Amino acid sequence: MQQRLETMVDQDEEKIELALEYLFLMTRDPDLVEISTGWRRTFAYDNGPRVAKSALTADDFERYFDPGLKESIEQSWGGLLTTSVDEIRNAIEAKKRQDQQAKQESYPFNQPDALFIDMDFWARSATWTDEEAVMLSLDRHPLPPYLESIKNVSDNELQECLIAQHFFDRIALVEAAKKAGQISSTGKSIDFVNWFERMEFETSEELINKVRHFQGKPAGSAARKSVNLSDQQENTLLKLVAAMAVRGYSFDPSKHRNQATADIRSDLELLGLELDDKTVLKWLRAATDLIHKDFWKTD
């Protein structure tokens, strides 16, 4: 053991640091954190492995490690000291990925039961709370145990938990959308799913379709009737759209961004009608294509 430790002290700083980190990941022993921190402090203050060799000796390792850990270290160092820095670094990254995957799977909101959602129940609910809506948008059951577990993810854990990050980000976006009138203050489920689509969230198509089935306008209403237009009729409607878009909303097809698109969608919602920005823009461009190019020329 003494010879092993003396050999370790002779290694370069980077290999020692990486080897200590690897051993800590494998054993999770707090003594390794202490000894690794000691090495970092020595190198930071004394600026170089040469001073570190004299500052941290094999006797220091004997004092730090208990007999059981020393035996494990002795077995591991033989291989680590003959391994390249890149190989140790790759082993560390692989172990971290493995640990991270295991950590993600351990969260209650990532358990199989949390992924099983009664779509019919939630689609029949006329209103959702903000938190229920966001959980459903993440394909997670919004029951209290799963909801509380995601809300209790610590700041340190949040950096590596994508689902929790999305949860808090979407809660903030929902609050802003309600203030802007994009989602009703009562939290209608139909408003939420329409907003999910506008935000291009990857939300269950089954949930969206079921909500529209249960919460949409009754079949047979004027809004749901399908009308087959002839080419002449469609052309006539496009001309009407072009006139209203340009003269009423100042739509300019040459601009990449048009306030007219958002204004029209907003006015449609006030009338109880729904179209997303992409659909509005598609038909505005189709309509204004009928306008002669000379109209757009400026003096």
Based on CA inertia axes, which overall geometry fits? Answer: elongated
Sheet-strand content, in percent, reads: under 5%
Mean pLDDT over the full residue set = 74
End-to-end span in angstroms? 89 Å
Q: What fraction, in percent, of the residue positions are helical?
A: 55-70%
Helix/strand order: HHHHHHHHHHHHHHHHH
pLDDT below 50 for ≥5 consecutive residues: which ranges? 1-11, 39-58, 61-67, 218-225
**How many DSSP-defined strands?**
0
Backbone CA Rg: 31 Å
Q: Main sheet?
A: none
Work out the helix count. 17
Number of domains: 3
- Helix and strand composition category: mainly alpha
Question: Could you please describe the fold and organization of this structure?
Answer:
The chain has 17 helices and no strands. The chain has three domains: 104 residues, no CATH class; 104 residues, no CATH class; 66 residues, no CATH class. It starts with a helix and ends in an 11-residue tail after the last helix. By secondary structure, the protein is an all-alpha fold.
